[in-house]
Amino acid sequence: MSNLEFTEPLEIIYRDEHMVAINKPAGLLVHKSYLARKETYFAMTMLRDQLGQYVYPIHRLDRPTSGVLLFALSSEVARLLSEQFSERSVEKGYLAMVRGYLLGNDTLDYPLKEELDKIADKDAQQDKEAQEAVTRWHHLLSGEFDAPIGKYEKARFSLVALKPLTGRKHQLRRHLAHLRHPIMGDTTHGDGKQNKYFKAHLGEQRLMLHAAQLRFNHPVSGEGIELLAPIPESFTNICDAVGWSDILTSPLAYFEE
Measured between alpha carbons, how far is 159 from 221 in angstroms, rounded to an integer? Predict the structure, then answer.
């Protein structure tokens, strides 16, 4: 997804005097980094210019993932919000389109070793123990295309709601791959044959993972905040092709006790 152009203003889904949240488009990096030194567009700088003030990123989304991205408007609010994330008191809900029929619902507790980059992380400890990683998932819809892929006569897909209870790098992508139901469009942990079909027949090439929902307490007032990021057309167009419509944007509803 390199060299994409982002010329439209970012979609703001929440704003007050203390914080702002956007619906990050797929393909947009959150901020500058050594590995992205040749890139032009970053959510942090685009939002700063759009608002005319400095913004503090509180968490991150992988570049190919769309959805809720939260920023603070002061260093003190950034500290308070970051504490909620580190204490795991923030609830995050995702929607994903995966390979095959991932039916039912369950919790995957599967530790993950930290993914290190050969250049950017060359000085980091290389032999760390695998870290706790827990993801809840819930089947929503299934569909198929009447076309063979590999040894299968038809291409089968599922739409699932995801709730990560920890925040490891690429956790959802790696956990779904571990379940043998990789997320469609995942070029790192996914299924190459499925992705090739995906691009050829659906005309889209994006990771089918959307951060649809975020719940936390307001860092100043303490009131409960729920943010919902509308599903982008790049996601809904593919869902429509499978026959899925009227998809709910509140995946956390499926994990209520």
Answer: 36
End-to-end CA distance of the chain: 38
62 is catalytic: yes
If 0-12 CB within 10 Å is exposed, 13-18 middle and 19+ buried, where does residue 38 land?
exposed
Band (pLDDT 50/70/90 cuts) for residue 146 is confident
DSSP secondary structure letter of residue 73: S
What's the whole-model pTM score?
A: 0.91
Please report, as a single letter, which amino acid is at residue 111.
P
Query: Token pair 């769309």 is at which residue?
Result: 66
User: Which member of 62, 123, 191, 240 is catalytic?
Assistant: 62
pLDDT in tens, 42-86: 999 999 999 999 999 999 999 999 999 999 999 999 999 999 999
* 25's tokens: 């488009």
| pLDDT in the model for residue 204 | 67
Cβ–Cβ contacts within 10 Å for residue 198, how many? 25
Percentage helix, strand, coil for the chain under 3-state DSSP, each rounded to 5 = 25, 30, 50
